[in-house]
Amino acid sequence: MTPVKPALLSANRVHVAFPGLHGAPDARAVDGVDLGIRRGEIVALVGESGCGKTTLARALLGLVAPTGGGVVFDGRPLEYSGRSLKAYRKRVQLVLQDPSGSLNPRHTVYDAVAEGLRIHGHRGDEQAAVAEALSRAGLRPPERFFLRHPHELSGGQRQRVVIAGALVLEPELLVADEPVASLDASVRGEILALLLRLRDELALSALVVTHDLGLAWNIADRVAVMYLGRIVETGPVEQVLTAPRHPYTRALLSVLPEAPGDPVVLTGEPPDPSRVPPGCRFHARCPILAGGEAERAGVAEACRTRDPGILTGDDTVQVACHWAAAR
Fold first, then answer.
1. What three-state secondary structure class fits 174?
2. Does pLDDT of 42 surpass 80?
3. Angle at Cα 229 formed by Cα 225 and Cα 235, nearest 5°?
4. Comparing C-alpha atoms, which of 201, 140, 206 is closest to residue 172?
5. DSSP states of 83-127 as a string?
6. pLDDT value at position 98?
7. At 29, which helix (H) or strand (E)?
8. pTM for this model (two decimals)
9. How confident is residue 1, by pLDDT bands cut at 50, 70 and 90?
């Protein structure tokens, strides 16, 4: 039996809460998450807007300190001193969804990619490093792009410049927040193929944050589905997306164009992280509970009153659902 590799980056019972205004309850944006990412692995973190996935990504990057739990990178707890974070962010780089907002319109492509090298005091050949990063990102010949400005590039080319700016520091892990959301459909596949190629060529790890389960299917080794601050289902992407067990995952999948049957329309109010309900946090919107299936399975009371608990961060198929566990 092949031993399981330890996680390169892991969240251990991470909580992130923001103070409420005018005496309101704290907003529990991340409410207890275990999640591991191994070397050379792409993990998709999926959920609708407001579920806490971007806040979790920011906590993993050290941009926001957890209010509970912690982050471990390469076997060591993440420290929040300036020097430690600077060293950490050389090894873990962020790729944002909007390349137009990420790139300074006054800077050339060369300066945009070289910025990280200058921040981290790179001592080698800067021009060679920039050229190699642009080439790896698919902008060839790289010298042709050195003096261009963002407005002279297509959306896909701008996103490749952003990726080159991350690659130039030779990171071990990328955190990509909706990396193709702002791109045309014709370009999305090219950027996803680029991320897969970088994983294969450089043994890069990646956390891809997205609301799109179709994107997760095309790029990820493993998927983690997030709802109201918690991971509610996780496992290898093929197993989770071909046989989803959590009603929320089923609802997300049902709206994909190729999904069989009618889309599942979730009732009730969108999740509010300052008012996490008792029991299963999805129960107020759960079609299984509303349709009587949970009652017939004998778990309706548990759905309303008993927290299913925090899933572990390993690669096994797991679900935080009383009804799924009873089947």
1. strand
2. yes
3. 25
4. 206
5. HHHHHHHHHEEEE-S-HHHHS-TTS-HHHHHHHHHHHTT--S-HH
6. 72
7. strand 27-37
8. 0.94
9. very low
